[in-house]
Design goal:
Number of strands: 10
Shape: globular
CATH topology of the domain at 3-12 and 51-138: Umud Fragment, subunit A
CATH class of the domain at 3-12 and 51-138: Mainly Beta
Distance between the termini: 31 Å
Oligomer: single chain
Number of helices: 1
Helix content: under 10%
Radius of gyration: 18 Å
Structural class: mainly beta
């Protein structure tokens, strides 16, 4: 089961990052494409200036089928209402979870994207609060140091 650690809200940054056009191929890039077209702010790209955006660390493997891995960071927007198939931070009986939001009739179902984790049907007597909806994913490629 994937749980989460809420790191906190995102602080704005004045830093702009070089943005290369056209997109960089995953193979060997052409030397002719080795120039910066513009600079882009991650704050603007992901809407990080909004106070309802939070950074959350993923713990567990239940969403690996979606490419969300243990140790990843996800951006969560608390202002969005969940729709079917959204990845959400759900607080179920006081436990924060990262799951796929679904419904079967009036019943909420929290799904995983891993065959070892069956769907979790939320019972009427349980306490469920959808804390926010995933809007972005961040992963470290190489640990610093």
């Amino acid at each position: 089961m994937s749980s989460v650690s809420i790191i906190g809200s995102i602080a704005p940054s004045a830093m702009a990052i070089p943005f290369f056009l056209p997109s960089v191929p995953a193979g060997f890039p052409s030397p002719a494409q080795d120039h910066i077209e513009q600079r882009v702010s991650l704050d603007e790209l992901f809407g990080l200036h909004r106070p309802q955006i939070f950074l959350v660390r993923v713990a567990g493997h239940s969403l690996t089928g979606l490419g969300i891995l243990d140790g990843d960071f996800v951006l969560i927007d608390k202002s969005l209402q969940p729709r079917r198939d959204d990845v959400v931070v759900a607080c179920l009986n006081g436990e924060p979870l990262l799951k796929i939001f679904d419904r079967e009739g009036a019943q909420v179902v929290l799904r995983s994207a891993h065959t070892d984790h069956p769907p979790r049907h939320v019972l009427e007597a349980e306490d469920l609060h959808i804390w926010g909806v995933l809007i972005g994913l961040c992963r470290r490629g190489r640990a610093s140091g």
